[in-house]
Design a protein that fits this description.
By secondary structure, the chain is mainly beta. It has two domains: 54 residues, no CATH class; 102 residues, Aromatic compound dioxygenase (Protocatechuate 3,4-Dioxygenase, subunit A, Sandwich), CATH 2.60.130. Helices cover 13% and strands 43% of the residues. The protein is built from one helix and twelve strands; from the N terminus they run ββαββββββββββ. The chain has a four-stranded mixed beta sheet with strand order 8-5-12-11, with no helix packed on it. It is elongated.
Length: 168
C-alpha cells in the first residue's frame, strides 16, 4: 500500500483512506475487547468480513439435551433399589442432577449440558448403604433430534442402559 505511514503485522496501520482507517480501528477495538472478555472467562466469536468490515458478534456456549434411562443391578442381575445415580459433570441448571433407583432398579436422568464430551455421558453410581463400590460408568448416547445449527446441538438419549455394581 503506497500511502502507509507505518507497517505492522499484516499490512498498514494507518493510511490516508478514511474507510480503511475506520475498519482497522474497529478490528483493533474488537481484538482488545475479545482479550478483555477472555480474561473474564467469556468466550466470544466474531467475524469481520465484508467490504466495509461489517461485524457479527456472538457469545455463548453450545448446549445439548440428553436423557439416560437405565437399570442398576448386582452381579446376579438382581435389581438394586435406592442406588444414587448422578452425572459426573453437571454444569447447567435445568434438569435432574441426581436420582435414586426405584424398587425395580430403574432410573432416569435428564439434563441440558454444554457440548464437549462427545456422544457419551459419565454417570457416578453410588450405594449410600455401603454394600457396593461407588463406580463411574460411561453410557453411549444416540442423537434423536437435530439442533438449530447455532448454539443448540440437539437431543441425545440412552435407553435400557444396564449398570452392574460390584460388592466391596
Amino acid at each position: 500500500m503506497a500511502n502507509c505511514f507505518s507497517v505492522i503485522w499484516r499490512g498498514c496501520l494507518w493510511t490516508n483512506d478514511k474507510i480503511h482507517n475506520d475498519i482497522l480501528m474497529k478490528r483493533i477495538f474488537i481484538k482488545l475487547f475479545q482479550g478483555l472478555l477472555a480474561l473474564l472467562g467469556i468466550a466470544v466469536a466474531t467475524s469481520c468480513d465484508g467490504i466495509l468490515g461489517g461485524m457479527v458478534c456472538a457469545y455463548g456456549t453450545p448446549t445439548m439435551d440428553y436423557t439416560v434411562q437405565g437399570k442398576v443391578v448386582n452381579a446376579d442381575k438382581g435389581a438394586l433399589k435406592g442406588i444414587k445415580v448422578k452425572p459426573l459433570r453437571s454444569d447447567i441448571n435445568g434438569g435432574i442432577d441426581s436420582t435414586y433407583t426405584d424398587g425395580s432398579g430403574n432410573f432416569i436422568i435428564a439434563q441440558k449440558r454444554t457440548v464437549g464430551f462427545g456422544e457419551a455421558v459419565s454417570l457416578v453410581i453410588e450405594d449410600e448403604a455401603g454394600i457396593y463400590r461407588t463406580d463411574t460408568v460411561n453410557v453411549k448416547l444416540v442423537k434423536v433430534k437435530d439442533g438449530d445449527n447455532k448454539w443448540y446441538n440437539g437431543a441425545y438419549e440412552a435407553k435400557d442402559a444396564v449398570i452392574t455394581m460390584k460388592e466391596k
